[in-house]
Amino acid sequence: MNSSCAVSGASSTLTANGLLASANGVSGRFGEYDEISSASLCKYSFTEIIIIILLSGSMSCSSKKADKVFYVKMPWPDSTIPRPPAPCCASKPVPKPSLLESVSQEFGNLTHLLYWPSSPGEEKDLLASTSPQNSTYYLRGPAQASYALGGYLEAILVARDHRGRPKTHGGDLFRAQLLGPDLKAGAPGDVQDLENGTYLLSFPLLWAGQAQVQVRLIHSSEAVGVLRRIWREKRATVDFRGYFRGPTGIEETVICNVDPLSIGTRGPTCQYRNTDSGEVWFCAQPSTLPCNSLVGHSSGSYLNVTTRHDEALLAWQVTDKVLPRGISPIRIRRAAPGNSSLALKPVDLHVTYQTGPLMAVETTRNIVLHWRAHGWPLRSLRTPVASLHSVVQELGGLAGGPHTVVVLGLGAHFTTFPPSVFGQRLAGIRAAVAALLAREPHTLVVIKLANTGYKSVYGSDWFTLQVNRLLRAAFADLRVAFVDAWEMTSSLALPDSIHPVRLIVQNEVDSLLSFICPT
To answer: Distance between CA 179 and CA 177 in Å, rounded?
Structure first.
């Protein structure tokens, strides 16, 4: 990126991980103003978070002058005082709305976005499932001595089972890449399922030099069938812990979740409804303490939701495996790049680091960055309930404007629940984004798509792909930009990780900054 606004060094860990904002000109409603002190910046990584960047009115990408920078000291509730959102006891389960009931009418019917070709019947023969060793691919047309930069390379992939027989139906999750080892470059290939056991692969030729096609089988169609069944039929695949504390210091720990039936108790439950977003959370009622004594939250357990046959289809031996090379390296004619940097310094706000809020500043260009994780359902270490803010709540308190950038990273913490749960959350966030853009149309809103990573029943790439489809559709008619972390993590010859390596993070930050300072 040839912009003077780019991030390098420690700042690259800021990709879509929080709430970022400048304090210049912020109204006094947040509390008193103090000058900034700095501390060491540690790595952090969460999803479905909110980033806000407020740039001072005099700031520009090439500005050399730095105004005095302040930060806002916000009063924070004492975590020892029970202050959860308006609770009530509910011994009867609350009916769960369907996906179409939960999303706003503006979404329309989104179920077609979750379409995926299905395997015929319940296949119990493991040898009839798709084999990464036996599946093959080859060039669609005759090989050429070299290929033109800017063109496309096409190939045909034939899926075969463990007996070597061609598959007659689609539904496999393949990932294709075009890699440039000399330049350390990469581009994702488009995989079109023809639903007859063959797939059309298409690769953009984006650089000059050598390039090599690589194809991976992430999940067989039979494994995808397992994932789809669990995602739609199970109310949750994980649970959480709620920590209650009484006035004398006595504590009780109970199970919590997005659905009262997922708590595992037939006794009364505590229900917590966020008045800003309408989001609902449930905890088993403690035996001796009231519902309004909830003070802490953390991850809980992974639930057993698979059979032995399911686990065999999802085993590591047949998951995320590279197919045998089917195309020799190609040569592409002609290429070029660029870079610049920006240094951010942290400010220690003395909070639980994993959930925030966190803060960093860049005094040369007068930028202040705030980060915070989203609220329930959040898989984290124990954190004060008072620190868990909804995205809708944060957006509702933001004025917006031409010097405000909001970045939302959404998805990863919702792959352990049915799509209706994510649909509900999306409906509220979309409405809040629409309201923000209505009151300040010049606000820049950026959506970070979820990246590749997990390959299990609790967080597979197949789930992530469905989540990203919903994300794009939800914001399709709003003036927002996208940072496509899925494509970035699908492009390079790097190990998949739910928390991508520094090179990916740097590219995500560069992509974000290209929207802020496009020239």
So the answer is: 6
Contact between 357 and 370 under an 8 Å Cβ cutoff? The reply is yes
Digit-by-digit pLDDT tens for the chain (519 residues) are 333 333 333 333 333 333 333 333 333 323 333 333 333 333 333 333 334 333 333 333 444 443 333 333 333 333 333 444 555 444 444 444 443 344 444 444 555 678 888 877 556 789 999 999 999 999 998 999 899 998 999 999 999 999 999 999 999 999 999 999 888 889 999 999 999 999 999 999 999 999 999 999 999 999 999 999 998 888 899 999 999 999 999 999 999 999 898 888 788 999 999 888 888 999 999 999 999 999 999 999 999 999 999 999 999 999 999 999 999 999 998 745 444 455 666 666 666 676 777 888 887 877 878 777 787 888 888 888 888 888 898 898 888 888 888 999 888 788 888 888 888 888 889 999 999 999 999 999 999 998 888 888 888 888 888 889 989 988 988 999 999 988 888 888 888 888 888 888 888 888 888 888 876
Please tell me whether residue 247 adopts helix, strand or coil conformation.
Answer: coil
Model-level pTM greater than 0.85? Answer: no
E strand spans, 161-248: 173-180, 185-193, 198-204, 209-219, 238-245
Identify the bridge partners of residue 369 per DSSP, sorted by sequence position.
53, 360
CA 43 to each of CA 9, 134, 354, 384, 408: distance values in angstroms, whole numbers, following the listed order: 11, 41, 9, 21, 18
- Asked if 155 contacts 136 with a C-beta cutoff of 8 angstroms, the reply is no
The contacts of residue 457 (CB under 8 Å, 6+ apart) are 226, 227, 230, 237, 305, 306, 310, 314
CA distance 318 to 311: 11
DSSP collapsed to 3 states, 424-482 = HHHHHHHHHHHHHHHHCCCCEEEEECCCCCCCCCCCCHHHHHHHHHHHHHHCCCCCEEE
330: three-class secondary structure by DSSP: strand
Q: Name the one residue in this structure whose structure tokens are 């139906």.
A: 169
Cross-strand partners of 332: 147, 209
8 A C-beta contact, residue 332 and residue 423: no
- At 14, which amino acid appears? L
Helix (H, G, I), strand (E, B) or coil at 235: coil
Peptide bond just before 85 cis, omega within 30 deg: no
**DSSP one-letter code for 65:** -
